[in-house]
């Protein structure tokens, strides 16, 4: 389960100062870039400054609004493995490209806790899928995913060198001119309005040995990554956590049912119940926890009325939403909103 809220400072800020400096060099005003973020200018030179989801949303939104459209994706393409500390070093020293992808999948929370990487292998191509694991505004989520896709492409170029094949990128949103600029710059194909944000690469390249492979360094890096994972606020890789992420990502008008979840997992509903029971959970508990998490996020945004939030979450009216929220948090939505608005 998620163990941080929209205002908990759990994200490493060190990836953003270079982007902000580039924006300033291109004419953006620093005060305007930081407006509404509660991020001090001194954080640009700090090594261990942390930001929250809410701060991240405002910052990325400001950059998207004030700067040229291609800036964030272009910056992502400059983030090679060396930019990601010990996780990048573990990937660099991996035996094969497949091992490097496994590292990215397993330890991505160290780099960006709200991003998840999954690899699906078919006979000819492997799909590297990127998804957000936490509710975030559409524009900020789009920017972070695009930067991450661009970074993944750069990393693939680096580790595969002259064996880098032509790849295809797919994004969920509609393509804009800067997407084609990126595709031309990277010699890649790109397609918009797709089901997933993903990169397709030939499966056979996954078995290629990496030029900097070193088993001793690899093992040492893995050990350090495991230690860092233990310090993160969200560690749960259980079935319960996986289902919650799936429910959070779902964009349909109605909530996913346990039958639909079981079908996606290729198991029966009865087996799903049994697995969840082993973890001390139930599908009803997961749904309730997910709705509460979404409700807290919407309440902290302070853009929606209680009735609007109730409708967004699928409740028949505000009274039912208020009752359910109070049962799970001990406070009404109005009380919760007032509490978080009190300056600390």
Automatic annotation (TrEMBL):
What SUPFAM superfamilies does the annotation carry?
Answer: Homeodomain-like
Please give the PROSITE patterns that the UniProt record associates with this protein: HTH_ARAC_FAMILY_2
Q: Name one GO molecular function term.
A: transcription cis-regulatory region binding
Residue ranges spanning the membrane: these are none
Q: Where is the HTH araC/xylS-type domain?
A: 237-339
Keyword line: DNA-binding, Transcription, Transcription regulation
User: SMART domains per the record?
Assistant: HTH_ARAC
Which Gene Ontology cellular component annotation is one that this UniProt entry carries?
A: cytosol
**What protein does this entry describe?**
AraC family transcriptional regulator
Provenance organism: Litoribrevibacter albus
User: Per UniProt, what is the name of the gene that codes for the protein in this document?
Assistant: oruR_4
């Amino acid at each position: 389960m998620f163990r941080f809220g929209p205002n908990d400072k759990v994200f490493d800020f060190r990836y953003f100062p270079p982007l902000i400096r580039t924006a300033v060099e291109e004419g953006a005003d620093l005060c305007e870039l930081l407006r509404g973020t509660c991020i001090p200018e001194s954080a640009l030179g700090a090594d261990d400054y942390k930001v929250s989801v809410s701060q991240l949303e405002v910052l990325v939104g400001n950059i998207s609004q004030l700067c040229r459209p291609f800036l964030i994706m272009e910056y992502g393409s400059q983030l090679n493995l060396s930019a990601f500390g010990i996780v990048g070093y573990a990937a660099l020293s991996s035996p094969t490209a497949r091992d490097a992808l496994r590292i990215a999948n397993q330890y991505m929370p160290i780099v960006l806790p709200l991003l998840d990487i999954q690899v699906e292998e078919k006979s000819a191509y492997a799909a590297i899928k990127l998804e957000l694991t936490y509710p975030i505004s559409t524009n900020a989520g789009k920017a972070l995913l695009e930067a991450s896709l661009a970074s993944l492409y750069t990393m693939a170029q680096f580790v595969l060198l002259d064996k880098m094949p032509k790849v295809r990128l797919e994004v969920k949103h509609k393509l804009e001119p800067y997407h084609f600029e990126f595709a031309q710059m990277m010699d890649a194909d790109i397609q918009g309005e797709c089901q997933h944000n993903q990169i397709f690469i030939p499966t056979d390249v996954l078995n290629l040995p990496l030029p900097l492979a070193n088993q001793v360094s690899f093992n040492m890096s893995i050990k350090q990554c495991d230690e860092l994972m233990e310090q993160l606020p969200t560690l749960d890789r259980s079935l319960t956590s996986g289902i919650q992420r799936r429910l959070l990502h779902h964009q349909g008008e109605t909530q996913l049912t346990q039958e639909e979840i079981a079908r996606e997992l290729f198991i029966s509903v009865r087996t799903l119940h049994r697995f969840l029971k082993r973890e001390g959970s139930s599908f009803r508990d997961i749904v309730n926890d997910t709705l509460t998490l979404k409700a807290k996020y919407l309440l902290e945004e302070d853009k929606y009325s209680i009735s609007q939030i109730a409708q967004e979450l699928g409740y028949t009216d505000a009274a039912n939403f208020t009752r359910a929220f109070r049962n799970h948090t001990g406070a009404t939505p109005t009380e919760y909103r007032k509490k978080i608005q009190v300056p600390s």
